[in-house]
Amino acid sequence: MKEMAQGDYFIVKALENGVQVIGLTRGTNTKFHHSEKLDENEILVVQFTEHTSAIKIKGKAMIESSVGQMRNDQ
After folding, report:
1. Rounded average pLDDT over 50-72
2. This prediction's pTM
């Protein structure tokens, strides 16, 4: 059985319609590999994995992780 990558989880809560959450790949060439669009008050639980090294968030959102909470609308 293949082991799952155990990365940190964090939560993204959309504060407006159309918030985009975009996963970026690991490796020598960083590429977009997954995208989700959230409407206001929708919540997405996200995890870094062996394939995902960064996540880009476009739009007003609240982000909560083990290191704290932040909003990108201030």
Report:
1. 90
2. 0.79
